[in-house]
Amino acid sequence: MEKYLLSREIVKFHFGEVYAQIFWNLSTYGACGFKELVKLSKVSAGEVKQAVAVLLQQNVIFAYEKGSGRVFRNKPWKLDGEEGVEILFEAKVEEALLRLRFPRFIQLCREYYGETGEVLCQILLERGLLSFEDVIQVGVTQGRLKSSAAADSVLHKMIEEKFVCLAGYEYYEKNEKDVSSVSSGMKRKRSTDDAPSPAREADMSQRSSETLRFVQLELYRISTSFLNRILRHEAFSDLVVHTVRENSRMVASCFRAMLSLIRKEDECFEGEQSVPVQRDAILDEIRNQMPSSSELVTVDQLNEALNVLQDDRYNFISGIGISSFVVEIRMMRQLLKQRATEHLILKRHGTSGLRVYRLLLDKGALEQRQLLEFAMLPGTTAREKLYAMFRDGYVVVNEIPSSSDYKSSRSFFLWSVDVSNVFTNVLCHAYKATLNMLIRMKNLHVEYSRLLGSNLYCVSEELESVPIQQEILERHISSQSSNMNYSCASLELKERLEKLRQRMALYEVSILRLDKNIMCIRDI
């Protein structure tokens, strides 16, 4: 339930109350038609149509035809009501939760493609769905891109390397004048000595007119799944760096090279292992990633690093045959989840609570007396920690009766850890904490806007006047706040605004940290 509440608050924070209400109706009631959605939302059809257009554009909901399953990218109500056509809408809760990760996506694009890549990523995340030309045009028009040629090159590279993906097509009808001129031009081009018959020429003219009447426009968006994959790889790399001590630099380079090779081929992280990579390919990738001034990596150094990664203490990779290796995806995912959980237990219950948790994981079910002996803690402290962890859902107790009358005095009480239940509780706590921080940050935004006399997070209007909706999300509140004109403000007002801005920045950082824990437990 916390996940749905958090996704609703994210939509409300980014778009507004009406959008959040529509999203909430779709996430709680399931698939709904347009008329049913209007009744549930209790607002006008025009407002629902505008909100649905924005949410479709931002990939927070999706629309499809009942029966055939045909998916629509925008404005599907044009076909709604025709004979045999029924359009249904559904919420995409996971995509709404991914909006918390947008700042990290922008940072990734900056690391790989510089400032131009960062601006292109911001534009695509703000607009949701754009054609290739519109992405560059928006950046140049707003003065965020210095060179259209450089932006064109970077955007092509981002598409080639899967940072930006083709999301669909939009069809629009060309002007009749343009169609006729193109058709006549095609006729003149075919006028040779060996001219076709008049009947065939008329048929070709009619077919060319039909094909040219509707033009296909490719629409692009940020590939959130691929960027998520990069963040997962970074989490795997950090795990290796913080775990392996011997020859750590070479081991980390070797493991990053393996992840780089499997990144574009491995589409699923639900499997046991990654796709296999060859030893020679790993060596070439390491040499490509290292600076030209550094010494070349030898085969012996690579073999030593691969042996460390295959060691029984770690088992991060496994060998297949003589020269092929795979990454143990499932094992690393489980280890990351466990480490994130232990970090949270350490923060909430201290070292003694973490010791109790690890003991129960290692020994299995134990009586309270046995647990106190193994933990080597004072009886009062151990009991307090044990019952506090039981209240938070980190440990469970099972009653095993020794007689048929089920009396508690004759029963054994065994303490244990239900790992799947622990992961679920940790995830719910992270969702709840993130939700609380979003609400607090929204209140700070309201106070900030009241002091400035302007609204910093409004949704733009007139969506029907252009084929691509206007910008509906203002990113980087802190950078916008710093560019405000304070010349007319008093010193006291400046201090209050600065304090609010600092508090909002702290909440943003805290939300990003919580989202990293959510990614480790849920997405990895």
TrEMBL record:
<dbReference type="InterPro" id="IPR013197">
    <property type="entry name" value="RNA_pol_III_RPC82-rel_HTH"/>
</dbReference>
<protein>
    <recommendedName>
        <fullName>DNA-directed RNA polymerase III subunit RPC3</fullName>
    </recommendedName>
</protein>
<dbReference type="GO" id="GO:0016779">
    <property type="term" value="F:nucleotidyltransferase activity"/>
</dbReference>
<dbReference type="InterPro" id="IPR036388">
    <property type="entry name" value="WH-like_DNA-bd_sf"/>
</dbReference>
<dbReference type="Pfam" id="PF22536">
    <property type="entry name" value="WHD_POLR3C"/>
</dbReference>
<feature type="coiled-coil region">
    <location>
        <begin position="483"/>
        <end position="517"/>
    </location>
</feature>
<dbReference type="GO" id="GO:0003697">
    <property type="term" value="F:single-stranded DNA binding"/>
</dbReference>
<keyword id="KW-0175">Coiled coil</keyword>
<feature type="domain" description="DNA-directed RNA polymerase III subunit RPC3 winged-helix">
    <location>
        <begin position="342"/>
        <end position="417"/>
    </location>
</feature>
<feature type="domain" description="RNA polymerase III subunit RPC82-related helix-turn-helix">
    <location>
        <begin position="6"/>
        <end position="64"/>
    </location>
</feature>
<keyword id="KW-0539">Nucleus</keyword>
<comment type="subunit">
    <text>Component of the RNA polymerase III (Pol III) complex consisting of 17 subunits.</text>
</comment>
<dbReference type="InterPro" id="IPR036390">
    <property type="entry name" value="WH_DNA-bd_sf"/>
</dbReference>
<comment type="function">
    <text>DNA-dependent RNA polymerase catalyzes the transcription of DNA into RNA using the four ribonucleoside triphosphates as substrates. Specific core component of RNA polymerase III which synthesizes small RNAs, such as 5S rRNA and tRNAs.</text>
</comment>
<dbReference type="InterPro" id="IPR039748">
    <property type="entry name" value="RPC3"/>
</dbReference>
<comment type="similarity">
    <text>Belongs to the RNA polymerase beta chain family.</text>
</comment>
<keyword id="KW-0808">Transferase</keyword>
<dbReference type="Pfam" id="PF08221">
    <property type="entry name" value="HTH_9"/>
</dbReference>
<keyword id="KW-0240">DNA-directed RNA polymerase</keyword>
<keyword id="KW-0548">Nucleotidyltransferase</keyword>
<feature type="region of interest" description="Disordered">
    <location>
        <begin position="182"/>
        <end position="207"/>
    </location>
</feature>
<keyword id="KW-0804">Transcription</keyword>
<dbReference type="InterPro" id="IPR055207">
    <property type="entry name" value="POLR3C_WHD"/>
</dbReference>
<dbReference type="GO" id="GO:0005666">
    <property type="term" value="C:RNA polymerase III complex"/>
</dbReference>
<comment type="similarity">
    <text>Belongs to the eukaryotic RPC3/POLR3C RNA polymerase subunit family.</text>
</comment>
